[in-house]
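Q: Could you write out the predicted structure for this multi-component system? I'm mainly interested in how the pieces pack against one another.
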Amino acid sequence: MLAEGLIMQANENRIEFSAPRTHFLSGKPLDRLKDAWAVPFDFQITLWSGTRNHVFRTLADRFVISYDVLDEKFKVDKMIEPRHSAKNLSAAAAETWCLQQMALTDLNGLSPTDKLWARLEIRAEDVSSRETLPFAHGAVTESGISLNTLIEILSRPPPSPQLRWTEEAGPVTLETLRVVRR
Amino acid sequence: MNRLLLGCGLLLIWVAVIRAEPPQVSDNALPQVQSVVLAEAEPLNVNSRYTVEDVQVVGWHVKRMSDALKANIDRLKGEKLDRPKLEVIANEIKRELHVPKVDVTVVRGVNVDEVQVTFEVAHTHEQDLELTVARFLYHSKQGWTAEGSATTHFGGNAFTFGLVSDGDAMLERFAGVRAGIERGHIGSDRVSLRFDFASYHNQWNRDTLMADSDQTYRTRQVFEPQATIVLTSYLELDLGTRFSLYRLAAPGAKAESSNAVVSTLRYHQRWGSDPSEDEEANASYNLTSATHVLASDPAYTRQTVNAAYKIRRGRNTFDLAFLAGKIAGVAPLFDRYVLGNASTLRGWNKYVLDPLGGSHVVHGSVNYAYRWIQVFYDTGAIWDRADQRSQKHSAGVGFRARNFQLAMAFPLVSHPGIPVFYAGMNF
């Protein structure tokens, strides 16, 4: 079911998610990956049933992604049990693989006719904020506060806020999702 | 003195024991994952399997880097790529060169499964004048202390000019100017030479004046030529002389000189590549010997041992510090030991402990910090004669963020008085 950028699919007794328009492997996180860092991404999917006030399930996981600077392919490690990893992935394949690991498998208590809403939140670890603090490395040292460095740091443009991605879907029903699947 | 040396020895042995298995902090130290695609477990960062083939620093006069930093950079060659460690080195370059930005790039090497690392130092910040607030402190019993300096480079020499007013480090409040010139390479990268000059006006606390005003002086000038020899990447030796001229405060008294040979052996080592998971050890032995051979009025020998160990594990930081010293002979007040300031026996008033300073000192300090909150315990003794020796204790609580501190400290006595409050940076 396509609603905004989050797609829900019912497959037997599980609900799978995909977000083909959401590219979190971009911008600053991608720059950092290409600088040979491993970057953690936190994923959370919240599912409401019946009304928007009733949270049916919350799924959370952390994926650590690294970019092979020689092979130019991504490697992803799922950090919460059961742990998995995959490598030699393109950027799009890495993004898809993460969401594939977030499927909802426990549908007990969910009626086929209940309305469902879902929200996907992805957050990259904000590594840049530490570097832009006025008293971060370089400005304050054992030799004191370097006024020149402080001026330089305070003159920098503000960091890009795009380190979070949110997509929503719904309302749909489990029944509808199964029909769409067929 | 034997007890002092024994204490120092025990501290160093303790540090050596807990250093027996240094932690390897890197991407590889994060939890391993079981692969569904691959049979064997692998490091989280796929680049950790590559070996560093070559390391370059570009965009700066690399010659001005210290040997210790160059050695740290050279040690990366041949090691597996440890990305957090590269950032630690980049931060060391920032600190040493006083530049705001050092970019790290990792590219394909010439050989299979090898990479080349480049530290690119920003060109934009190569100033002619570096302004630094070196230190400031407010202490509720001692008042303000502050120090600032300006440094510029010319022809391979660093010129420094500074202003200082310090009511914390010594018995006296000394305020005045400092100037220095340093040349980094004298025949070898391992030898540097510096000349420091200072001229101070001195003020005294009433307790010191009442104890013995004849020892106090109104002004003090210091000239200190010194050579630093880098013995290894962890050991440095300072050798030099210090010529001090001070004008005694007593009416009709003449100016006196304290001219001494000064040597300091320093040890510094750091372990761990992640700033939040590291260990650091510092130790030094200083010998100051004022002698009539150098036309010194007083003749004395001052020996001081300092040792400090710090360990950080996530949000927890634990510090140990030890100080011991002994003066043989009669030293002027500026060379006598002091306890009860913002770094030793915090909570005590240094003028209550010994208004004229001591010729013997032993001090130990334990600090624990969780995130920004710290608690500490100090203990020590300062004395001239053995029968004056009395061990004192103090404790405190406060906030600490990097080099900034704000704390309240109490002397541990049966009827504690008003606590000492202090706040500042780099003291």
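A: Regarding packing and overall arrangement: Residues 2-125+163-181 of chain A form one domain.
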